[in-house]
């Protein structure tokens, strides 16, 4: 089953939860329940369904002094295409300042132009 088919099979509240996680880029599970206005039990069930469908990832963390989970969209949901020119990643990634006259930036722009 494709990811889009899987998403269509989600309940309305599961879809809302997935959208919340995607829009926020990641959220602590306790905040997730509050934002959805559901009980922790229902929030856990929603989380479990999204994990089982491989639409989100969960990482153990400490938040406000309590052990909890951080829920984030799976990497396959992230679109990096706008950062790419051919097989080159934008030179702006990870750099504090990029010299617009640098060879790496020029090469990246040239690759971007050749894609069209």
Shape: elongated
Largest sheet: 3 strands, antiparallel
Give the CA-CA distance, first to last residue.
Answer: 33 Å
Mean model confidence by pLDDT: 83
The total tally of domains equals 2
Q: Strands of the largest sheet, in order across it?
A: 1-3-2
What is the name of the CATH superfamily of the largest domain? Winged helix-like DNA-binding domain superfamily/Winged helix DNA-binding domain
How large is the radius of gyration? 19 Å
**Name of the CATH architecture of the largest domain:** Orthogonal Bundle
Classification by helices and strands = alpha+beta
- What oligomeric state do these chains adopt? single chain
- Look at the structure and give the CATH class of the largest domain: Mainly Alpha
CATH topology of the largest domain: Arc Repressor Mutant, subunit A
**Secondary-structure element series:** HHEHHEEEEH
Walk me through the structure.
The chain is α+β, with helices and mostly antiparallel strands and about 120 residues long. The strands form two sheets. The protein has a three-stranded antiparallel sheet. A two-stranded antiparallel ribbon has the order 4-5. The protein starts with a helix and ends with a helix. The chain has helices at about 5-10, 10-25, 30-35, 40-50, 105-115; strands at about 25-30, 55-65, 65-75, 85, 90. The protein has two domains: about 5-75, Orthogonal Bundle (Arc Repressor Mutant, subunit A); about 80-115, no CATH class. About 45% of the residues lie in helices and about 20% in strands. Helix 2 (about 10-25) crosses helix 4 (about 40-50).
């Amino acid at each position: 089953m494709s990811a889009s088919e899987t998403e269509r099979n989600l309940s309305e509240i599961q879809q809302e939860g997935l959208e919340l996680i995607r829009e926020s880029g990641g959220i602590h599970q306790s905040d997730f329940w509050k934002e959805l206005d559901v009980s922790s039990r229902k929030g856990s069930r929603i989380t479990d369904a999204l994990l089982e469908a491989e639409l989100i990832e969960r990482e153990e963390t400490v938040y406000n002094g309590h052990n909890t989970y951080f829920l984030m969209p799976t990497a396959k949901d992230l679109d990096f295409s706008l950062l790419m020119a051919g097989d080159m990643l934008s030179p702006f990634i990870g750099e504090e300042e990029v010299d617009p006259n640098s060879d790496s930036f020029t090469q990246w722009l040239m690759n971007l132009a050749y894609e069209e």
